[in-house]
Queue: 4 jobs
Job 1
Amino acid sequence: MPSRLAAVDLGSNSFHLLLARPGDSGFQVVDRQREMVRLAEGLGPDGRLSAAATDRALACLDRFGQLVRDLPPGAVRAVGTNTLRRARDAGGFLRTAEARLGHPIEIVSGLEEARLIYLGVAHSVADDGRRRLVVDIGGGSTELIVGEGFTPRELESLYMGCVSYSHRFFAGGRISRKRLRQAVLAARTELEPHERRFRAAGWQRVVGASGTIRAVARVAGGQAGLVTRQALERLMEALVEAGSVERLRLPGLGAERRPVFPGGVAILAAVFEALGLETMAAAEGALREGVLYDLLGRIHHEDVRGATVSDLERRFAVDTVHARRVADTARALHARVAAAWDLDEPGLAALLEWAARLHELGLFVAHGQYHKHGAYILGHADLPGFSRQEQAALALLVRAHRRKFPGAEFEAWAPAEAARLRRLACLLRLAVLLHRGRGEGAPPVELAVDGPAMKLAFPPGWLGEHPLTAADLEQEAAWLAAAGMALSWE
């Protein structure tokens, strides 16, 4: 295990870095960094990030990189949230941002963000056995989670945050009773479709996680770390009396938080109204702590992504005996060529195995074009533990495992990543081909590669006894040739 681990949270309002020393039962924090980047502020109507916001973000990642750049691959997990989910030019930004940080950056879905937030909160508050509601108000999104212990039961992510609402309803920093009520009503509209489900979840404890909620707890006074309905109402009156962000002088409210505070307060008030809350305790744990605990789980082979794949196998009635045989062969082929094909990067072997286990997922829909059905499901389902990039890569491998090689679909990826995914797809295709008989094991085949050329070596006489495989190899060679790959055998 690495001597240090790090979680990087690229939020819509703030970027956070948590550097920790792992232990037997958790981690010890050795450094924390937080910068108010306000990425959401720079997201224009066309979905593009402004130059100013991009510059702020990259400068921050330069500083974070000084702390984590020398950590080994797999010791740092960096996640992007709502603003990067929405940004049209996120791919170009990410490539530059990864170079500055020195590690890959994942964009996570709203529900995956909610899961990680809950994990961070659950580890930061005492577990009294009661079901809890967790609320997190970020810069661009708000997450609601109901769970018990370390297990979330209901999750939702809504497109409303303290930055986006402050710009939308409090333009120019002006605050009025009408503006505040409009913001609360807009948030209630977002919450309305989910009110009944979350009220029915039956929590006994309410916990808030985020800078907004901790700031409200500090400002509203009363019991430390606790937000009450009455205190929130008094705070809203104080905002109206101030009349503008510039005149807000509230004890405990920092200058950096002030410009986005009205939007966050309006959303919190709407949550209290919609869910009938009276009190909310502010927790220290949040997304970055959840990311770090999730990273620890992966290192200790408790990866939630494996559980997600197993759940998909059950839900879609996958022939697991056959799928595991294909996965075993794919893993063996990968081991033979990983060094030569630059496929020894952490995570690629697991991605190939998961694709092999799920390559027949689409049969649940129909046999015709089942590789496309499976790819659609994997590309659009909520997959706990998977980032958007991982989910897209998994869907692409399943899409590419049979029939014509979909070369154009790899062009959306950066060249180096596209090359690795093409090669993983070739290994999956060969593994599937070698198990065409389904009931029998694959032959003890050898694989050698040289650039785009692959050569299989079968036991003497084996292909003569298996004419269907020989015919399949001829067809496969033609499909791969059209994609710029070469397949031969002896």
Job 2
Amino acid sequence: MKKIILPIFGLLAFTSSLYSQEPWTLERCIEYALANNIQVKLQELNVKVNEVNLLQSKMEALPTLNINGNHSYSFGLVTNYITNTKESLKTQATSFSISTGMPIYNGFQVTNTRKQNQFDLKASVADVEKVKNNIALTIASLYLQILYQQELVEIARRQVELSKMQLERTKVLVSAGSLPEGNLYEVEALVASDELQLVNAQNQLNLSYLNLTQLLELKSPEGFQIAKPVIPAVDSVKLMNENPTQIFSTAEGIMPQIQSARYKLQSSEIGLKIAKGGLQPRLSLGANYNSGAQYRIQDNYDFTGDPFFTQIKNNASKSVGLSLSIPIFNGLSARSRVSTARIGLMNAQLALESERNALYKDIQQAYADAIAAEKKLQASLKSKTASEESFRYTQNKFNIGLVTALDFTTAKNKLAQAETDLLQAKYELIFKTKILEFYKGLPLKL
């Protein structure tokens, strides 16, 4: 058995290891987070609570039915049913009742409560989607941050390799007497500085991985890698042809935060109707059936001598009636609830307006950032090209001793900064463009 089981467990472990090493795409990260994030699960529990509340409000319109029973022992003075006088006896008695009731009119509070709970349920479902959208946007940001940090690590690594190559050339030139020995020390210091930059870039990459895995609720970032997609160029002409108002007109109808605020406003409107219903009369229908039997304990017979079921039949009483309640004065409690409901309605109206303003500002900001990033990208491309030419020219002059190591370091740092600025503008443009596409209803994907 060991020969059979151990290889199976080994195969399973190997398969699990391969799965954990498989690169994660952006779509997979978002899907996994939405299925495992605690905030999403908490919001989904709120949906279940509202489902229960809606079911309960529907049941409130149905008649009630209750059965009550009682069996008691009495010692001392009891009523003799024959003489209708008090006697000192030991008796036991059984009684039960069946009652039913149904509201006929209560200011439409039952109907309006059901409607309000329907809007509350829809709002809670929209709140789940709102949380999911926030998580998806955060994951996209962290995912692009990792891609950005990966390219920064590559830039830092190329800088180290370039400095090491320059160090080897400088050693040869110093040995040949073409350059002073001080140049060698300066290049060695440059190599050490570039290696430090590489370590810092790698640390930032590791931190970016940690942030993403924590949001995914993974236990450890060990073995976690993201897939490096081929990102298409952003259509800047199409971006310029759109404006925040057009994007907002689309986003307003599909974004869950707006839908949730609208549902909550409708719920508050119904809540005001419910509160006003408390000022109206209440009419209900009720019916009861009561009966019972009584025995002496010592000789096991009742006062009349009738058996148990005969007593139940003879003692039965039935009633059907209407109940009317008209509120006149109850410490202004009903009117206070109306005032509170009005304030809640105004609060819901302001909340909706606030969500609309916040969404429009987010779209405006994303649009302005995208335009700025596109301009920065074009400028960074020119700067990178110029910095490359300047660096090659300075490097050639440094190799023949016409410029100092400080001039060489300055030119190399300018090139590295130009490459960094280009990357920053590139990923900023990608992220802001993805946000604008997301507001138009397109899924987040690379």
Job 3
Amino acid sequence: MRDPILKDLPLERYGRLLQGATGVSCAVACATTGGDVWWTGERDDLPPVQEALRELAAYESSSTTPQRLDLGSGRMLIHAPLRAQDSSQVGNLAILLDAELSEDRLAASEVILSDLVACSEREYRLNQEANALAEELSNRYEELNLVYKVAGHAYAFEHDDAGTKALLQHLTERLEVDFAALVRGRDIAPICAEPTSASMPNRDLVLTAICGDLFRFACTARNAVVMNTKDDPRRQYLFANMRYRVLACPVVETGAAPSMLVLLRVEDGPEFTNGDRSLAAVIAHQTAIMIQNHAMLGSLQKFGVQMAGALIEAIEAKDPYTRGHSERVQSVSVRLAKAAGLTGDSISDVSWGALLHDVGKMGVPDNIICKAGALTADEFTMIKMHPERSYEILRHIEELSRGALDAARYHHERVDGTGYPHGLRGKQIPVESRVISIGDTYDALTSSRSYRAAASHDDALRIIRDAAGTQLDADLVQTFENLCVREPSALLTSAESDDAPDE
């Protein structure tokens, strides 16, 4: 099996390093455990090297040091295994030398090969981590985009269930399922949707099974039910003789009729993953809220906010010290925006920008986010990349306005021009970003971190006052101080409240 990470190893450079260290010209080869071989030497030397490395790939080596293999015709292959983060072997690195070389030169080549293997393994593992981060960011983008699409359906929702059906239809396309249904306890028939190009066989039997014991079981268990395999023992009494993979997410609210979102895939389709389960649970919950409050236009806007909030919570789970940070920054920033006289779309841009301002931190490694000590210059640079990364993720969401994008993108700019990512100065920084910057600073100061305790409200206000005109907008800082006088209880953090003495 091809491995693009191994294919990109700088074998030509390795050859130059070996020649410089040992004084001997040699060819370098890299092979995967699947039998692919990359080679820097002469074409005539490749067949025996290729054959030897493919034989080595047939079994996993337990050796931790380079080994010699006599290829005949005066040629010596020195090879060593390459291992991934989990210590599994992913390939071999090898050099081809003249077998008549002195023992000293052969030994020196083995030492250099060991160092090159260590460097290659480090590069391989770093690339693995980078690819995993890229995949995670891609998944988060897909989830965020789906959230906004769902919110768009919420605004179109009417009394006749047309909005819910349109939402389910959208889910069948985005999640690539063959059937979606919302079962409501007080309704006789569920609301269903299927891909436009498909027609479900035995539809009546499927609906009967969904609305029967599967619905009752999921609502009683209050947990999602996932049945991917044919031999799942629950099938015989919940979904007997049905050739589908099942994901059923119940919603049981106090005082409200239970609901359940059901997604089906044909049994030869991909299995439902934990990510599918988590996203379906969020969608099921928010869909139930939308239905229960369809007469209230204001609640439809809240729908999208709560969906995005669920994703923000997942992002902030990388560091338990920042849990709730985005929601608190949103609350303080919206209050400050209103106090500063912002209205309409600007208030909305502040709200969304504040809620999503740290989305880009998904791309920062956990060991940097959670580091208890001081950051190195490179680690701080990784942190400073997050506003631009947030923009790169969020800009693909059509429903998010340019004002909200810029509000999140520039919240670390400083009015004196020394901020990041673009070094904007003064009024070049959108007013929405300047508002969020104060909200972000206030919450960061008054929240505990792994490396320091939370500051008091008064100490935070003093630090913010000192930053007026350099880091923060002086006029907005004055507005913030006035707001603190008028609404002090609205800005006090829960941590400070917890530290207050008992009366």
Job 4
Amino acid sequence: MNQQSWNVYLSGEIHSDWRERIIEGAGAAGLTIEFCSPVTDHASSDDCGVNILGGEDQAFWHDHKGAKVNAIRTRTLIDRADIVVVRFGDKYKQWNAAFDAGYAAAMGTSIITLHDPALRHALKEVDGAAMATAETPEQVVRILDYVINGRLAASA
């Protein structure tokens, strides 16, 4: 099964190194994965619509333009994904990540959620749609290794 290249979409919070830890861990495990994600530069993500399509006087329309332009990327990449990993951090509410999880669930794409145990109650519906719920990026790597290679690597 490991001959194929897998496509994994990394959705969620942008304030920690979780994406890098998964990408580095997958590389160290020799996993053939193409990772993709939303634009993680907050200012670029917020301002892409008005930067490309022109300014807006009202914040609603500023945000609307940015959300629509970002949705082109998000929908396309989730549609192509074999697995979607959704990270919820505790610093900010990631409504976009919850939306990504719902979209992936509606598309029938396998979801792995990643969050601190303290968020279990708040995320019970999202976790209910996920195939696995991890607490660390390293657990996500172990899940990917098992799913891709059928190999149960030793825990660190």
